[in-house]
Design goal:
- The complex is a heterodimer.
- Chain A has 16 helices and 13 strands.
- Chain A is an alpha+beta fold.
- The termini of chain A are far apart.
- The relative contact order of chain B is 0.07.
- By secondary structure, chain B is an alpha+beta fold.
- In chain B, a hairpin with a 4-residue loop joins β12 and β13.
- Classes of the chains: A alpha+beta, B alpha+beta.
C-alpha cells in the first residue's frame, strides 16, 4: 500500500487497472452463465410477486371496505376565492402532473408541476347530484373530524353524511341537540323492524299469492286449450282465485298500516354547504357516528357489515347491500352441476378405463376428452344456448307448457340449462381425474379380487372405486372450482343482473328449475362494468372478488392436499 | 376339475345367487357401456351441433316452380306486388284497375277500378317504396292519383283471413300535376312529413317538379295540399326514368341511353343540377332503374345483361359523387325487369330470355339463376319474406316460384375481404352487425375480429412466454426442492383464479394505473432486467460468508425484495420522467409527436392480464417437461466439465424442447379463447390497429356480447356460431397437436 500520495499518472493507471479487474470479473461472471440463471430466477420471482400481490391487493381492498371510515369536514378554498364546506370520506389519493389538470380546466400557477389530489366521497346524491369529488390537497384547509358527524346508510340515494339536528315524529320535533342521537337510534331500530316486516309481506307472502294466481291462470288456459270446458274445474279455479284475492286484500291492508307506521318518523340534518335536509327513517338502514366509535364499536360494526354482506339482498342497482342471492345462486348451480357431472364423469371414466378395448380408438377418444378441457368456455355457452335453451327448452315448452306460450318457461335461460352447460364444460376434468385414480389402483388388487371369484362389476364397485374415490373427489372439487369461476358461458344461459326470486323457495314445486339466478362471478362483471355508479360500486366489487377468490383457493388447496396425500399413499403401493 | 354341480358347496340357493351376480355384472357392463358412450357422444355433440347450426350458411339457394296460370283480370300489368304471408297479390293494370288475386291459383279476389271509366287513362305508374304499399298512377290528363293497397288480417272462427283493401290517401280525385294537362309519361313520387314531392315527364317533353306542401289544420286534423311547380330545364337528353330519394333530397333523371343526371332538391323552388354520369357501358341501353332497399343505392339494368350498383360516395372535397360500386352480369340478354327485396340488400333481375337471377349486393354474389319463362318477362316481384317470386311473362301467364334463399349475405368476400358498404368512401373491413333502422346494411366482416383475436393472443404470449418458460426452467432445474413445494402450489392457485377477477382488475385498476404511470411502466420494463443483473453481479462479488446466508436454489426468494424495490423505484420515477421528457402528459405527447392515439383500455393492459392468466398453463407443462428429462443426462454433462448453464442450454432444453413447444401451443390456444379478460379490459371496438395503445374486439368477446341479442336462426346468429366453431376447431387442433407431442415425448423418456 502506498503511503505517499500518488501522482496523477499513477492514479490514472491504478483506476484503469481497477476497471480492467472489474471488467474481467464481469466477463468471467457472464461467461459462467450465471446471469441467465438470475434472469430465470427473476422470471419466477415476478410471477410469484404477481400472484401474491394480486391476492393481497384484493384482500386489502375487499376487507377494508367494511371498516367504518372516519368522516372529515374541511373547507375547500379555491384560488378564485370561493370557500365551500366539504364533508365526506377519503376514498383515494393520487399525484398527477399539473398539465393533465390544466387540460381539464383547473387553473394552476405555471410553476406548479405536479399536484396531489384526493377523492372524497361526499354522498348525498339526492341533494348534491354527485357523490364523489376530486379535491386538490393544497386547497383543502382546516380538516377536522368532528365526533358528532353522522353517517347514514340509506335504501336509496346512497350514503348520507351530515350533522344531526333533530328527530321528528309526524312532523313535530321530539328531540334536538345531543339527546337526539339516542332517540334516533331507538327510532331507527323500530323503523328497521317495520321495514323487515314490510319486506317479508311484499316479497314472501304477496309474492306467493302472485305465484299461485299465475298458476291458476295457467290452469285455466290449459283447460281452454284442451277444448272441453269442465264447469266444476272452472268453478274450483274461480273459488281459489277469490280466496287468494281476499288474502291479498288482507295483506294489502296490513301493508298500508305498516307503511303509515314507518312513515311516521324522520330526521333533519345539516349537510355540507349548510343546507338542511329531511331524511325519512323509512329509508334509513343504519346510522352511526364513525368519528366517535371506539375500537370495540368499530369491530362490532365491521362484523355486522360482513354479516350483512353475505346475508342480505342487494340494493341500489347492486352497488350496495349484500350478495346473498348471488351466493345462493352460485351454490345451487354448483350443486345441481355436481349432481349431473359426477355420475356422468365417473361412468365415462370407468367405461374408458375398464370396459372399452384399449385400442387406437380409445386413445383418440381420450385425447378428444382431454382437449375438450381446453376449449374456450364461450363455445360451451353458445352450445348451451342453441341446443339446451332453444332446442330442448323450446321442445319442452311446446310439449308440456303450451298454456304459458308465448312466454317461454324452459325455452329461455335458467338454472337447469346453466347447470347442464357447466356440467358438460367440467365433465372432462372429472373424467381425467377419475381415470387417473383408476389407473393408480394396483393391478394386484384387481387381479386378487377377480381371483377370489368376484365378478368384474363387484370388483369395481367394492374394491376399485372406493380406492379411487379420493381421486373422484379431487376431480369433483376441481370441477366445482372451475364452475364457480366461469362466467362467459353463464352470460348466455342463465344469469341475470337481479333475480326477483330464488330458485328454491316455499312455493310448490319448491325447486324452480326454470328460474334465472345470480352468480358471484357475473356479479363482479355486472357491478364493475354495467352499473350506473362505478365509483360507489367499486369497493363492493373488491369484496365480492375476495369472497370468490377465497372460495376458489380453499377448494383448490383442498384438492391439492388430497392429491398429494394420494400420491404418497400410492407411492408405497407401487413397486 | 369338478363341475360346479358336483361340488359339496353347491346348492340351489348358491346357484341362484351366482346367476344373480352374473346378471348384475352383465347389466353393469351394459349400463356403463351405454353411459360411457352416451357421455362421450354428448361431449362430441358440441362439434356436431355447431356444424349443424353453421351449415345452412353455406347451403346454396334454390327455387322451384309452384304455379302458373293466365294473368288474372286481363289487361297488361304495370306493377305487381305480393303480400306478407304469400297468400295474395295485387296487380295494377294498364286500364286503371287494381286486381287482387290468390297467388296459388290466380283466382281473383277483388277487382276494383281506380279511375272513372271514360275519363283519363293511365299513362304512367310508380311504386317508390314496396314496403309502404304506396303506388301512384299518372294519368293522361296530367293528373296523379296516389293509391295505397292494404291487406287486413283477421281471424274469424280462428281461421286466418286476409282481406284486401284500397285506400286513396289524398282523396279519390286525382291531384293536378301538369297544369297544361298533357299526358304524363314518366313519374316519380315521394311522400314526406312536410310535403308530397312529385316529378314527371310530360308527352310534350317537359320535366316538371311539383311540391304539394302539407298543411294540417290542427283543429280538424285535415291535411290540405298546396301545389307549387317548377319546370326543370337543361336536361340534355330525353328523360325516361325518374327517381326521388326517400329523404326527398335528390332527384335522379335517366335516359334510355344510360345517362343519369341528379338534381339537388334541398330547395324545391330552385332545384340544382349537380352531376351527370353514364350508368351503362359501351353502346348498351338502360332498361331498368330502381332503388335498393333504403333508397341509397341505384340499380341500373342494361341491355347487355348487366346490372350495375351505384351510390353516392363522399370524396376528398366532401362532395357526394355517384360512383360505380359493383356490377353483376346475367347472361347476354337485355335485363327487362328488376325487383328489389324488401328486407335485405338483395334484388332479382329478369332478362329477355326469361331467366331470373337472384343477387345480393353486400356479398357481391349471384345467388341463384333459374329459367322461369320462355320469352321475356313483363312484370316481376318478390314477396316481402323473399320466399316467393311472381313473374309475368310475355306469354300472358303468371309464373309463381317458391324461393329458399336464407342467407344470401354470406359469401367469402363478405366475411373476409374489404367491402364497399353504403355510406363509406372506400372498401373497408367492418364488423357492425345491427343498427337502429330496418334498411340497415349488415356488415359481417370477420377480419377485424380475427385480427383482434390474434393481436390479443400475440401480446399475451409476448408477456407470458418468456416469464413462464424462464420461470419453468429455473423451477425445474435450479430451484431448491423445498422452495419448489411452495412455488408449484402457488402457480396452481394462479391457474385457478377466475378470469373474471383478472379482467375486472385489469379494467378497473390496471388500465387507469398504466394511464397515470405510463413512463414508469416502460422504465420498469427496461430497468428490471438490468437491475436484476446488476444486483446479481454485486451479489456474486460479495464475500462467501454473506452469500452462504442464502442457500443455493433460493435465488428467486432473494430476488423478491429486489424486484419489489426496482418496481417501486421505476414507478416513483414516473412522474418526474413525465415532467422532464413528455411535457407533463405522455398521452398528449404521443398523440402530438407520433400521432399515436392512446386508449385507456388497450392491448398493453390486455397483454399483461391475459399473460397472467396464461403463464400458469405454459409454466406447468414446460416445468413438467424439463423436470422429466432424465437426471443421468445432466450428471453426464456436468461430469464432462460443462457449467450448469451450459448443461441446461445445450442438453436439457434441447431434450425438453418438444414439451416446451407443446406448452406454448396450449398457452396460445388458451389465449385465443379467453373471453372475460378481453371483455373487461379492452374497449371492445372492432378496429384493426397494430398499435399497442389501441383496443380491439376478439371473436370470443364478440360472441359473448352479441349472442343474447341476436335473432335465432338469422344470418347474424349463424355467423356467431361460425365464430364459436372457428374458436373450437382452432383450440382443439392446437391442443391435440400439443398432446400428441407430449405423449410421444413421454414414451421417448420411458426408454431413456
Amino acid at each position: 500500500m502506498q503511503t505517499e500520495p500518488m501522482n496523477s499518472v499513477e492514479a490514472a493507471a491504478e483506476a484503469t487497472r481497477r476497471q480492467v479487474r472489474i471488467a474481467s470479473r464481469l466477463s468471467a461472471w457472464a461467461a459462467s452463465g450465471s446471469p441467465w440463471v438470475w434472469l430465470n430466477a427473476a422470471a419466477i420471482a415476478t410471477s410469484l410477486i404477481a400472484v401474491v400481490g394480486l391476492l393481497v391487493f384484493i384482500a386489502a381492498h375487499g376487507l377494508g371496505h367494511f371498516w367504518p371510515k372516519a368522516i372529515m369536514e374541511a373547507i375547500y378554498a379555491q384560488p378564485d376565492g370561493t370557500r365551500s364546506q366539504i364533508i365526506g370520506e377519503f376514498q383515494g389519493h393520487e399525484v398527477v402532473p399539473a398539465e393533465r389538470l390544466r387540460g381539464t380546466g383547473i387553473m394552476l400557477p405555471p410553476e406548479v408541476t405536479t399536484a396531489a389530489r384526493s377523492l372524497i366521497k361526499v354522498g348525498n346524491r339526492d341533494a348534491l347530484g354527485f357523490d364523489f369529488r376530486w379535491v386538490l390537497d393544497d386547497w383543502l384547509v382546516d380538516t377536522r373530524y368532528p365526533e358528532d358527524l353522522v353517517a347514514i346508510e340509506r335504501r336509496e340515494w346512497g350514503n348520507f353524511f351530515g350533522y344531526l339536528r333533530s328527530v321528528e315524529e309526524n312532523g313535530t320535533t321530539i328531540a334536538t341537540g345531543p339527546a337526539a342521537w339516542e332517540v334516533l337510534q331507538a327510532r331507527v331500530q323500530r323503523a328497521q323492524a317495520l321495514a323487515a316486516q314490510i319486506r317479508r309481506i311484499e316479497k314472501d307472502e304477496i309474492g306467493s299469492i302472485n305465484y299461485r294466481m299465475e298458476r291458476l291462470r295457467l290452469a285455466e288456459r290449459r283447460i281452454e286449450l284442451q277444448g272441453t270446458p269442465d264447469v266444476t274445474e272452472q268453478a274450483d279455479i274461480a273459488a281459489e282465485r277469490a280466496a287468494l284475492n281476499s288474502e291479498y286484500q288482507n295483506l294489502q291492508g296490513r301493508l298500508t298500516a305498516l307503511h303509515e307506521a314507518i312513515a311516521r318518523d324522520s330526521l333533519t340534518a345539516e349537510i355540507m354547504g349548510n343546507r338542511s335536509v329531511a331524511v325519512p327513517l323509512s329509508s334509513v338502514v343504519r346510522a352511526y357516528q364513525p368519528n366517535a366509535m371506539s375500537l370495540f364499536d368499530k369491530v362490532g360494526f365491521y362484523v355486522s357489515k360482513i354479516w350483512e354482506f353475505v346475508s342480505a339482498e342487494p340494493r341500489e342497482a347492486n352497488t350496495e347491500g349484500g350478495i346473498f342471492p348471488a351466493i345462493f345462486g352460485t351454490v345451487m348451480m354448483v350443486m345441481l352441476m355436481s349432481v349431473f357431472v359426477t355420475p356422468f364423469g365417473v361412468v365415462a371414466a370407468v367405461y374408458l378405463r375398464e370396459y372399452a378395448r384399449q385400442g387406437p380408438l380409445t386413445r383418440l377418444i381420450r385425447i378428444a376428452v382431454n382437449n375438450l378441457a381446453g376449449v374456450p368456455s364461450i363455445v360451451y355457452g353458445v352450445f348451451g344456448l342453441g341446443f339446451f335453451v332453444y332446442f330442448l327448452g323450446g321442445s319442452i315448452d311446446r310439449l308440456f307448457f303450451t298454456e304459458a306460450l308465448p312466454t317461454p318457461t324452459f325455452g329461455t335461460s335458467g338454472i337447469l340449462w346453466a347447470s347442464l352447460t357447466l356440467a358438460i364444460l367440467t365433465v372432462p376434468v372429472v373424467i381425467v381425474a377419475t381415470e387417473e385414480g383408476l389407473a393408480r389402483v394396483p393391478r394386484a388388487v384387481r387381479e386378487g379380487s377377480l381371483a377370489l371369484g368376484a365378478t368384474k362389476a363387484e370388483t369395481l364397485w367394492r374394491t376399485v372405486l372406493p380406492m379411487a374415490s379420493p381421486a373422484m373427489m379431487t376431480g369433483l372439487i376441481l370441477a366445482v372450482a372451475r364452475a364457480a369461476g366461469e362466467v362467459a358461458p353463464l352470460m348466455l344461459v342463465g344469469v341475470v343482473k337481479l333475480a326477483p326470486s330464488l330458485p328454491l323457495d316455499g312455493d310448490a314445486p319448491f325447486l324452480h328449475l326454470d328460474r334465472k339466478f345470480m352468480h358471484l362471478g357475473f356479479h363482479i362483471y355486472d357491478v364493475g362494468f354495467q352499473s350506473p355508479n362505478v365509483e360507489a360500486a367499486r369497493p363492493l366489487v373488491y369484496a365480492t372478488a375476495l369472497l370468490l377468490v377465497v372460495i376458489i383457493i380453499l377448494l383448490n388447496l383442498s384438492a391439492i392436499a388430497i392429491r398429494n396425500r394420494l400420491r404418497e399413499k400410492y407411492r408405497a403401493l407401487d413397486h | 376339475m369338478e363341475k360346479a354341480s358336483e361340488s359339496p358347496l353347491f346348492d340351489a340357493a348358491n346357484e341362484r345367487r351366482y346367476q344373480w351376480r352374473l346378471m348384475k355384472d352383465a347389466a353393469a357392463r351394459r349400463a356403463v357401456g351405454v353411459g360411457g358412450v352416451g357421455v362421450i357422444i354428448a361431449i362430441l355433440l358440441i362439434f356436431f351441433y355447431l356444424v349443424y347450426v353453421v351449415y345452412p350458411l353455406f347451403v346454396p339457394a334454390s327455387a322451384g316452380p309452384v304455379a302458373d296460370y293466365p294473368v288474372p283480370g286481363g289487361s297488361s300489368t304495370l306493377h305487381v306486388e305480393a303480400e306478407e304471408s304469400g297468400e295474395l297479390a295485387v296487380r295494377y293494370t294498364a286500364d286503371g284497375r287494381a286486381v287482387f288475386f290468390r297467388l296459388a291459383d290466380g283466382a281473383v279476389v277483388k277487382d276494383q277500378p281506380l279511375i272513372p271509366t271514360g275519363g283519363a287513362t293511365v299513362s304512367a305508374l310508380t311504386a317508390p317504396d314496396a314496403a309502404a304499399n304506396d303506388v301512384a298512377l299518372g294519368l293522361s290528363d296530367g293528373r296523379v292519383l296516389p293509391v295505397r293497397h292494404g291487406f287486413a288480417l283477421s281471424y274469424p272462427n280462428d281461421q286466418r283471413t286476409i282481406t284486401p283493401a284500397l285506400a286513396f290517401p289524398y282523396g279519390e280525385a286525382a291531384l293536378t300535376l301538369d297544369d297544361r294537362h298533357q299526358p304524363l309519361q314518366g313519374l316519380a313520387v315521394r311522400d314526406g312529413e312536410e310535403a308530397l314531392l312529385m316529378a314527371a315527364t310530360t308527352a310534350d317533353g317537359r320535366l316538371l317538379l311539383v311540391t304539394f306542401a302539407k298543411q294540417t289544420d290542427f283543429l280538424s286534423d285535415e291535411t290540405t295540399l298546396e301545389r307549387s311547380a317548377v319546370e326543370l330545364r337543361g336536361v340534355p337528353f330525353a328523360p325516361r326514368f325518374l327517381l326521388i330519394t326517400p329523404d326527398q333530397r335528390w332527384l335522379y333523371v335517366a335516359s334510355e341511353t344510360g345517362e343519369l343526371t341528379s338534381f339537388d332538391l334541398s330547395d324545391t323552388a330552385a332545384p340544382r343540377h349537380t352531376e351527370t354520369v353514364r350508368l351503362v357501358k359501351g353502346k348498351a341501353q338502360l332498361t331498368s332503374l330502381r332503388f335498393l332497399i333504403g333508397g341509397y343505392s341505384l340499380l341500373a339494368g342494361s341491355s347487355d345483361g348487366r346490372i350495375a350498383q351505384w351510390f353516392p360516395v363522399r370524396d376528398d372535397q366532401n362532395i357526394n359523387r355517384l360512383t360505380f360500386i359493383r356490377g353483376f352480369q346475367q347472361g347476354s340478354a337485355p335485363v327487362q325487369a328488376l325487383a328489389v327485396e324488401q328486407r335485405r340488400k338483395g334484388f332479382v333481375a329478369a332478362d329477355a330470355q326469361g331467366r331470373v337471377g337472384f343477387y345480393n349486393t353486400t356479398a357481391n354474389a349471384s345467388v341463384l339463376t333459374v329459367d322461369v319463362v320462355k320469352g321475356g318477362v313483363s312484370a316481376l316481384t318478390i314477396s316481402p319474406r323473399a320466399d316467393a317470386l311472381l313473374a309475368e311473362g310475355k306469354d300472358g301467364r303468371v309464373h309463381v316460384w317458391q324461393v329458399h334463399n336464407e342467407h344470401p349475405e354470406v359469401s367469402w368476400s363478405a366475411l373476409w375481404e374489404k367491402v364497399h358498404y353504403e355510406g363509406y368512401s372506400q372498401p373497408e373491413y367492418v364488423w357492425q352487425s345491427s343498427a337502429a333502422n330496418n334498411d340497415f346494411e349488415p356488415k359481417f366482416s370477420l377480419t377485424p375480429l380475427a385480427f383482434g383475436t390474434l393481436k390479443a393472443a400475440f401480446y399475451a404470449m409476448l408477456f407470458a412466454a418468456p416469464l413462464a418458460i424462464l420461470g419453468a426452467i429455473y423451477t425445474a432445474y435450479f430451484m431448491a426442492p423445498r422452495m419448489r413445494t411452495v412455488v408449484k402450489p402457488t402457480i396452481e392457485i394462479m391457474e385457478a383464479l377466475p378470469t373474471v377477477i383478472l379482467g375486472f382488475l385489469a379494467g378497473l385498476w390496471l388500465a387507469p394505473f398504466f394511464e397515470n404511470h405510463l413512463p414508469g411502466v416502460f422504465a420498469l420494463l427496461v430497468v428490471a432486467p438490468f437491475g436484476v443483473l446488476a444486483f446479481a453481479f454485486v451479489w456474486s462479488q460479495l464475500p462467501l460468508r454473506i452469500r452462504s446466508l442464502v442457500p443455493e436454489g433460493w435465488e428467486a426468494a432473494l430476488l423478491v425484495p429486489v424486484l419489489l424495490f426496482i418496481g417501486w423505484f421505476a414507478l416513483s420515477l414516473s412522474l418526474p420522467m413525465e415532467q422532464l421528457f413528455f411535457n407533463g402528459d405522455m398521452r398528449a405527447w404521443l398523440d402530438n409527436t407520433f400521432g399515436i392515439g392512446f386508449d385507456q383500455r388497450n392491448a398493453l393492459v390486455v397483454g399483461i392480464a391475459m399473460g397472467f392468466a396464461v403463464i400458469p398453463n405454459i409454466f406447468s407443462i414446460a416445468e413438467d417437461a424439463i423436470f422429466s428429462v432424465p437426471k443421468h443426462l445432466t450428471f453426464g454433462s456436468l461430469a464432462l466439465g460443462a457449467t450448469p448453464w451450459q448443461t441446461l442450454s445445450r442438453v436439457v432444453i434441447l431434450t425438453a424442447s418438444p414439451g416446451i413447444f407443446s406448452a406454448l401451443m396450449i398457452g396460445l390456444g388458451r389465449a385465443v379463447g379467453e373471453t372475460m379478460i378481453v371483455l373487461m379490459a379492452t374497449g371492445n371496438t372492432p378496429v384493426m390497429d397494430l398499435s399497442i395503445f389501441q383496443g380491439m374486439r376478439t371473436l370470443s368477446a364478440n360472441v359473448a356480447v352479441e349472442m343474447p341479442e341476436s335473432e335465432v336462426a338469422s344470418t347474424h346468429y349463424r355467423i356467431l356460431f361460425l365464430a364459436a366453431l372457428v374458436l373450437f376447431m382452432f383450440t382443439f387442433a392446437f391442443n391435440t397437436v400439443a398432446e400428441i407431442v407430449r405423449q410421444r415425448l413421454r414414451k421417448k423418456y420411458s426408454s431413456l
